[in-house]
Amino acid sequence: MSLESPVLEIDPLLDDRKTRIVVCCGSGGVGKTTTAAALGVRAAERGRTAVVLTIDPARRLAQSMGLSELDNTPREVAGIDRSAGGSLHAMMLDMKRTFDEVVVQHSDPERARAILENPFYQSLSAGFAGTQEYMAMEKLGQLRAQDAWDLIIVDTPPSRSALDFLDAPKRLGSFLDGRFIKLLMAPAKVGGRAGVKFLNIGMSMMTGTLSKVMGAGLLRDVQTFVAAMDTMFGGFRTRADATYRLLQAPGTAFLVVAAPERDALREAAYFVERLADEDMPLAGLVLNRVHGSGAAQLTAERALAAAEALEDYVAEGAEGTEEENLAGAGIVDHGAGHADSRQDRPDGTDASDRTDMTDRTGGTERLAAGLLRLHAERMQVVARERRTRDRFVSVHPEVPMVDVTALPGDVHDLEGLRAIGQELAEGRPSAA
Predict the structure, then answer these.
(1) Where in the sequence does UniProt note compositional bias of the Basic and acidic residues kind (predicted)?
(2) Which helix (H) or strand (E) holds 403?
(3) Confidence grade of residue 372 (pLDDT, cut at 50, 70, 90)
(4) Which of 78, 121, 247, 346 is least surrounded, with the fewest CB atoms within 10 Å of its CB?
(5) Buried b / exposed e across 219-241, counting CB within 10 Å, b at 16+?
(6) How many whole angstroms separate alpha carbon 156 and alpha carbon 195?
(7) Three-class SS of residue 140?
């Protein structure tokens, strides 16, 4: 007996004008990017002015939307049915460019130039742990502030852990507001000659040690960067907190995306619990790449038994045909027990004709046996996926879910995205 979960209704979610942000999140490799794009296409063709922000570096999203490339600037997607009054733009986060925009926007030209040219900043903006996730939050805040779109769909970073997207802004903010940074900023803030002298002694001792660990050049770059960024540190934390509150607002909906695999659903369950702990609005779970069968009433066990029976039948027929071939060649006479000349059979066919018929029959049966074995393998996959899903539903029976059938290949155009959007909208209940 399978467990039933509530049905995730996608169209009412997309049609609700109060829904301003949809965040697709989950572990890597479960189809978040494709899901986000399909939601964007469906929302636009139902009248929403939508933009899809993807952090996934894969180029297939641009190709499926008919765009030559995606960058940090929203680009309109051609081929969208605009009869309902909607439109669709898409963009891919450029982490460094977004960081540069933040620096330019929140500092004067001279300070901005000093920061942008600093080697430590260039390393930080290109690859510091958590920078990608933090900049995704920054870009989300920018898009929401522009108010040019009434629906923003976010494809979260392909992080190792689904929690990175929520934790990274706090981690980066903690780093920029941390004791080490404040200590490096201290010379610019201390007042009085005695204080400066005392601090210089302490800083000399500290920087001497750090120079040995980090290298004098790197330490100097860090101190220059910190001095230039002094007035911006508070802004990072303020904006991160503002975007975090935006994600908690009623106009935001989180969609956890998973595949019917143990690790993906385990991480999805963890993320569902974390969203609840953070009071963030969970709309439901999209289960991608679900396998099914048009002949589900034929179990794997019955299919295997039928395949074995057919293979045994073919093997027995082959033995009988070999014996008959000897007789047909004038080698054995079953009736008299001696050699006989070749002669036509009473049914009007000679031995060669009967051999051809037997080969054709055996080939058909072998093909049928092979198909039965393939069906048995598919039903075993279906059963394994149901057991995996069963465990999730038993722990989180309140989470609405919708299945998306596994496709034979990658989605490469708008029609493919429309097909996925249609499956999402049909809202087939997940029976685990």
Answers:
(1) 335-363
(2) strand 401-405
(3) very high
(4) 346
(5) bebbbbbbbbbbebbeebbebbe
(6) 47
(7) helix
Please calculate the CA angle 148-149-153 and round it to the nearest 5 degrees: 140
| Domains of the chain, residue spans | 10-194+225-291+406-426, 300-392
pLDDT at 176: 59
- Residue 227, token pair as written in the block: 């001095």
Q: Using one digit for the tens of pLDDT, what is the confidence trace for 225-238?
A: 776 666 666 677 77
Considering only CA atoms, give the Rg of the chain: 33
Sheet harboring 49-54: ordered strands across?
A: 75-76, 87-92, 49-54, 151-155, 21-25, 252-258, 282-290, 401-405
3-state secondary structure of 344: coil
Can you spell out the DSSP letters for 198-213? Answer: HHHHHHHHHHHHHHHH
Instruction: Compute the distance between CA of residue 181 and CA of residue 223 in angstroms, rounded to an integer.
Output: 9
Enter the CATH code of domain 10-194+225-291+406-426: 3.40.50.300
pLDDT digits (tens, 9 = 90+) for 299-311: 999 999 999 999 8
3-class SS of residue 190: coil
Confidence of residue 178 (pLDDT cuts 50, 70, 90): low
Q: What is the pLDDT of residue 47?
A: 97
The pTM assigned to this predicted structure is 0.77
Q: What residues have CB less than 8 Å from 228, skipping those under 6 apart?
A: 107, 111, 114, 115, 118
